[in-house]
Each structure stands twice: as C-alpha cells, then as structure tokens.
Amino acid sequence: MVFARRARVPGADEPGFPAASLLAATAILGVLLAVATARNLDRERHLMERFLAQEGLTLIRAMEAGARTSLRTTDASQSPVRVLVEETARSPLVAYVWLVDEQGRVVASAGDLPDGGPAPLQRVREVLEATGPVSRLVSSRSGEEIFEVARPFEPLAGQGAAPMRRRWERWCSMGPAGRGRVVADAPACRQAIFVGLHTREFAEARAQDLRQGLILGGVLLVAGAAGLYLVLLSHRVRGVRAALADLESHTRDVIQSLPDALVTLDRQGRVVGLNRRAEELFGTSEKEARGRALRELVGSGACEALETWIGSEEGVSERPAECRAADGAVVPVRVSAAPLTDRHGRRAGTVLLIRDVRELRAAEEQLERSRRLAALGRMAAGLAHEIRNPLGTLRGFAQYFGARSGDDEQSAGYARVMVEEIDRLDRLISALLQFARPREPEPRDVGVASVVERVRALAEAEAAQAGIALRVDVPAELTVRADPDLLTQVLLNLVQNALAATPPGGEVSVAAWEEGDEAAVAVDDTGRGLTPEEREHMFDPFYTTRPTGTGLGLAVVHQIVEQHGGRIQVESIRGRGTRVTVWLRTRGRPFP
Prior knowledge:
- This protein is α+β, with helices and mostly antiparallel strands.
- It has helices at about 15-75, 80-90, 120-130, 160-170, 200-255, 275-280, 285-290, 295-300, 305-310, 360-405, 410-435, 450-465, 485-500, 530-535, 555-565, and strands at about 95-100, 105-110, 135-140, 145-155, 190-200, 260-265, 270-275, 315-325, 330-340, 345-355, 445, 470-475, 480, 505-515, 520-525, 565-575, 575-585.
- The strands form four sheets. It has a five-stranded antiparallel sheet with strand order 2-1-5-4-3.
- A hairpin with a 2-residue loop joins strand 14 and strand 15 (about 520-525).
- Helix 12 (about 450-465) packs parallel to helix 13.
- It is rod-shaped.
- The two termini are about 40 Å apart.
C-alpha cells in the first residue's frame, strides 16, 4: 500500500509543539486582554475625573452666580450663600459642599462630611494659593470614594460695583453663624469652597468593565485549557489511529500471506472480503466479489453444505467440499468455518478458511502410485525371472521344430509365429525388469538440444510414415543435470505416445525453456486429448489405450523423472491435444 507523504515540520507531530504554541497564544492573548482592560480602566478614570472636575466647577460657578444675585437683591444681614450651599448639596451627584474661610472656619456646609472632618487649615491655604482648581479623591465615612473639587470662592470676581462689594464684605465680617454679629478680627473675604461628588456610578461602570475583563480572561483560560485538551486529545486520537492503521496493515498482511483462501461473510451470507489466495482460487477480485452470494463463487455443488456450516453457531473444522475454480474445474477443498461476533456478542457474520487440497491429493495419489509401483515391481521382478527361463526353452524348441518341418510351409509358419511371440514376450519381460529394477542414473550436465536432436532422429521416420509433422524448438545453450541415456528414453517415450495419439496431418512439437532454477521440456500434440480417467491413470503400470501397448512406457517415464528429482505436469483439452512437461534441475545444482 502506498501513502502520499506530506512535508513534515520538525517537531510538528509531537504533542509538545502544538501544546506549547497554544499555551503561548493563550498567554499572549491574556496579556493583551489584561493590558487592554487596564488601559480601559485608566481611561475611564481620567474621563471620570475630567467630567467630575467640570461638573464641580460648574456647580461652584452656579453658586457664585447665585451669591451675586442674592447680594443685589437681598439684605446683607442674611447669608446669601448658605441657602445656595444647602440647595446644591441636595443634588444626587453631590456628596457635600463646604465653604471655609482662610482661618479654617466653616462658613457654610451641607451633606456628609468626608472621613476626617473639615479640611485642615493647610489644605485651605493650598486651595487659596493655587492658580486653578484643585481636585482629589477622598473616602466618605461609608467607604465610598468621593471626588473633591476645590477652589477659591469669589462671587464678585470681575465685578466692580461698590455697593455689592460692601455688602459682601459686611457679610464676610459676620461670624460663621451669620446672625449679624460683627467679628472684630474678621479677615478680608477670602474663602475656599469644597464640593464633593459621588463616584459610585463610575465605580460601578469600572467594576462592570473589570468583571467583563475577568470574564473574558476566564473564557480565554477555559478556551486555552479546552484547546490544550483538544490538542492532546487530537494527538492521542492520531496515535490511536496510527496504531489502528498499523494493526490493520499488519492484520491485512497476515491475512494476505495466508496459504489458504480466506472469505469473510456478513449475516446474510454475502461476501465481505477475500484474501489474495481466495482471489486466485475464484478468479475474481475482492472488489468484484463484495456483496455477492457465496454460491456465485464456489459453485452450486458445495452450497448446501457450506450454507449449513455458515449457520452453525459452533463452527466447523476441516470439512471436505468441492469448489469451482476460475477455469471451471472442480477443486477439492477442506473448509473451516467460524462465527464472527461484534463487541456486544451478537452474530455479525462468518469467516471461512478454504484449503486447496489438490496438491495434497496429488501427493497422496503419488504416494499410492509409488506403493503400487513398488509392489508391482517386486512382483514383476519375480515373474520375469521365473518366465524368462521357460521362454528360452520354448524358443529353442520352436526353432527346432521349424527346422524339422521340411517342406511343410504351414508348420514352418507356425514355428516362426511362435518365435516372434516368444521374442515379444521377452521384450515385455525386459521392460518389466527395467521397471522393477531400474538402474541408477549417472547425472551430468547435459545439453537439452543434443538429447532432443537424438530423439528426433529416432522418431522422425515413424512421424513421416504416420503423416505427422515433428517440430523442435530448443535453445542451444539450455543445460540440465541428468543422465543422457535415461533422459533420451523419457523424451522418446513421450514423443512416441504423442505420435500414437495424433491423427495424420497433425503436429507433434518439442519445446524447452528455463524458469528460475528449473528447465522445462514440453511435448505437445494435436490429438484427441485425455479423458479425466485417462489423465488419472496414465502413469499406472500396464494401463494403456493402445491395442499394441504394454502400459509400461509412461510408468518408466514417471519413474526416471522421479529418480532425477524432477516432476511431470500434464495439461490436456479434450479434442485439442495434450501437453506433457518434464521439469528438471538446471546445470550446477546438486543431484539428490
């Protein structure tokens, strides 16, 4: 499997890299939020002080204007400012109003005095000597922050009317009670006015902004923590996915490398997956087979048994069955079935393990054939030994009586027939002896072309007499490790059998090639082909379909090939011909 590779940033796949990046981003955003909140609070404080300073000055100017009006229209024996102070202090924004002379005596006051009482004399003198208004923040007795604005109280500033000034000086000469008693040491009319303004609305606004900043900080902290958790979780998920992908790849490799065909089915018996061996066996791909019924792959002959095994709760093991291969051939198999369950323990499907036992069956047949051949060899050796001696005697008497027959042509003919039949029996016995007691091969590096040319020379006349074309295609450099005489006998028997099976006008060809560590020599004919029974018994001793055959030729061929550590492969199509391929070891490999 091929995966597209992406460019990799160093450290980007480790959990520390995105986590550190997220923490850094959260910290930066937190600092920015804190700075922005502090700046907003500071700006609000400045705006508050500016607004309250303007508001205090406005109130002071209004009181000064009220005092001027009162001096014009009222008797100076009454306090023209006291009423203004009391009325001004009734405003919701005003906390208190003091009017203090330069000796520190309170001329008029209203509202709640700040913590610490009236302003000290030093504070009064600072206000009187200042070139502009003086402001500060003080605390009330209830703990509230009060913004205080102070400045000299000058209701007649810029006013030149003498009558008003005399009234003002007369009012100033009165005592703090303002009841008409003249104070002997009354100073010039220099007074300071202190106006305290409530800041609770601004404080509430700042507190609300601070709360919003804290809420945003908390949200940012929670978002950062959630992001960090998601990063770690994502990395963990990626790790789990990678582990699952590795496990899936490993499992797929294991399944694909199984020597047996593996088929997984769903609960309805439809194909879910095939491994490579199953694709080769059924001649279809996993993609094409997915969703199809099992009987479409294995053929109808095995479906009844397979469907019974698929429905089994306990499963089955190594049950014999037959499946249809891709080429239509019926393949003997052994089937194991096991139920598949999901994580809740419910039936999810079935897994089938199908073992192709063709090679096993061929090996069993080969073993059985070898046993039969061994038994027949022992019997043939005994019979050949016992029969050959009487045959020699019979041949001698047949020749004797033929010589004594004189002019009796009929008797002489009988004698010749007897000698010919005895000679045929002797050849059969010689073949039996060769089969029963084969000689040990003497292997060496042999050129296949030279052996095939020798076989063609021996069979060319027979092929020409039968009207069959004999063709050879063997590379000159191909070499095998074999006994040249025994290899000649093998190929000659195969060519003779091919000639016997091919009708006049047909063709027999001998070809050779090399595959890996083996060399193949194939004999093809265009005859009638083999039936399944003939193919199964063709190498059995004494099995022949020719009236004049002994049935030992192919048995000897099989025996010689086995002695060389080779193998024989037979392919036949009815009505089109047969190919017999002999596989032998190539040059330089050790001989068994």
